Automatic annotation (TrEMBL):
Keywords: Flavoprotein, FMN, Oxidoreductase. SMART domains: IMPDH (SM01240). GO terms for molecular function: nitronate monooxygenase activity. It comes from Pedobacter xixiisoli. Gene3D superfamilies: Aldolase class I (3.20.20.70). InterPro entries: Aldolase_TIM, NMO. It holds the Pfam family NMO. This is Enoyl-[acyl-carrier protein] reductase II. The keyword Endoplasmic reticulum does not apply. It comes from the Bacteria. The keyword Flavoprotein applies.
Amino acid sequence: MANVITSLFNIKYPIIQAGMVWCSGWRLAAAVSNVGGLGIIGAGSMYPEVLREHIQKCKQATDHPFAVNVPLLYPNIKEIMDILVEQDVKIVFTSAGNPATWTSFLKEKGMTVVHVIANTKFALKAEQSGVDAIVAEGFEAGGHNGREETTTLCLIPMIKQAVKIPVIAAGGIASGKSMLAAFSLGADAVQIGSAFAVAEESSAHPNFKERIISSAEGDTKLRMKKLVPVRLLKNEFADAVAQAEANGASTTELATLLGRARAKLGMFEGDIAEGELEIGQVSAMLNEIKPAAIILHEIWEEFLSEKDKLSALKF
């Protein structure tokens, strides 16, 4: 399929694997890129020297395009950006910050830049900053989320109407059917996180993967709204957060409860009781751990099949 996104990234399919903390290392990124999608290394959970290693290993594992996702609020952001230049990274997805701060720098270095947004205001700011495309992420998505709680179904057509640059839909997409729905709303590609979090190549701990595929409808909630909203799977930690929020906990009290390395504890080290387990609502639809290549191909084949079914409908 050739469209603005496949042409922009020089990839075969308009399917992008999200840059998820503690899940998106070089193995997952290379596996997705090798079968025609765009794999992304998630820098948000990596020290600078670890990121450098992942980029180098990804280059050894694939000769196809891949990207790096960089949260702009990262404390070592200058060092991270210097590594991207040093390692000749071609595609960068930025998030969690003002794209105007670094977009010009990255573009001057010849990089393609994409920014993640959750509302029209920031979509317009991203476009004005000169990014090549945006990821519009709906409320269903896992991890850090928009305060507006706008669903993907509502967000994508609003963003498409507001901007002229390509739009990548994210949030609640884990199948060919949901991919087709996103395209019908105007999306030029989809970014998929949760479905790839349970890929064999994902760096998530096996305990976390098993917890994802055993989850049920309603097992994720948006928490920590006074800090930075984040969608979490139910567990003892999430229950403690819910209780604290019900009791009117302050931002300081919530930050203390969160502590340090809580996401690493759950997602990477496998403590599914006390760890922070970030995942999307679509986790309730996931029931199997399998290779990233199979995940991508199943989504693509279902997308084509469902598209043909809709074309055959008689009205």
